[in-house]
Amino acid sequence: MTTGWAGLAAPGRRGAVGVLCGGVLLFATDTYVTASLLPSAIAEIGGERFYSWVVTVYLLPAVVTSALTGRALATWSAHRAYLLALLAFGVGSAIDAVAPSMAVLLVGRAVQGTGGGLLAGLAYALLRTALPRQLWTRGSAAISAMWGVGLLVGPVLGGAFAEAGLWRGAFVTMVVVTGVIALAVPAGLRRAAARPPVARTAFPVLSVLLVGAATAVLSVSGLAVSGSAVGARGIVVAAGGLVVALALLVGLVVHERRPGAARVLPLATFTRGGALGAVYVTAAVLIAVSAVETFVPLFGQRLGGLTPLVAGFLGVALAAGWVVGEMTSASFTRGRLLIGAGPLLTVLGFVLLTLSQTPGGVVWWAVGLVLAGVGVGVAWPHLTAGAMATGSSDDGREDSDDAEGDRASAAITMVQMLAVALGAAFAGVAVALGGGDTATSATYLYGGMGVVAVLGALTAVRARNAAV
User: Fold this and answer.
1) Parent domain of 14
2) Is residue 425 part of a domain?
3) Where is the Major facilitator superfamily (MFS) profile domain (predicted)?
4) How many structural domains are present in the chain?
5) Is residue 234 part of a domain?
6) pLDDT (tens digit, 9 = 90+) per residue, 438-450?
7) pLDDT digit string, tens, across residues 362-373
8) Nearest partner of 41 among 100, 116, 109, 110, judged by Cα
9) How far is CA 65 from the centre of its chain?
10) Are 78 and 402 spatial neighbours (Cβ–Cβ below 8 Å)?
């Protein structure tokens, strides 16, 4: 058996890796491409007051459909589920490309999110079948790296079309790429399609409603601290939304722990003394703290005196560290050590960031951001491989209950996207508490995220037991 990174490119595997990575890259690129071209779109079709909703209507259906990945695989074959996800994403992109108004653009974004969330959820679920267990860590690293690629490609693609006065062309490009990936699905997912059918379970109505409600509350309440002049009322609304969302997620856990409940999370999540629940919490913390990258360019310009271009490069320092960390980490087999070390590196990065928020500390900012990102990347592929291992026996053969394995794998994306919303809400409140003073806002943000990262370091102690 070909192992190592070359194993991903071996015959019978490279097609699956290409298709699954391609779907995640579509979703990731679209997340960033719209932000870069939106000012040009608004100048043509109007709707500036709905600026923030472009992200909200994309994220909400994406979280819901990612939670339903297991259900999708119990209803359709792997081929059909993936093609339906691509179809939804492509149709949404086409709607955006011809949108005559902001209302239509928002409809397109919602349809895109529906397909994109399912694409991201299917990536990890189908990776379990498409690759042997020995390659899960490297496969998950390759999939996750697509977010870093999207961070680079998205702004460039959107900016280039916007600069040329052809912002709709970015969405046309997304339609074309979606079609190309769809053509590769039959051959690429041949092995995934050969797996036995998964038994259909009851539809998890209450779980989906709780997940969707938490995401909606976070998205809507976050608008209260998204403007340039945020008052005390806005901070209270956003903080209250954060509390309500956390309460809804606690309700999700309480519901799913009940015997016989229709679930979106695998049963092993709630096993006393088990590692899977700790894996999800640790992963959520690492994703949530990465939300700071949204504000780095702002701090760089206002506090560090950087040009917009240099501040923009500083803004991707954390993402760059993430990609480098995970691609390096995935080559090592000491998963237990790396899961434990990753959050500690992230904590160290935030300590450095918190202590260096002065106009002359830009170099230390870059070091702290890269270090925090490396910490996320070092742990991430081993956390995801550990989650995917649920539902498999110790010798690597698939267990009889593939539904549990699908839930465990698909939940990675659901947890990731919920963490994005939680992290963004927390970051917005922390920055707003600075009261307009950039240095204070930065200190609150980095210090607060550092405290959150400590939680990840603590849960990683148990999560290490899931290492493949």
Assistant:
1) 9-201
2) yes
3) 16-465
4) 2
5) no
6) 899 999 999 999 9
7) 999 999 999 999
8) 100
9) 13
10) no
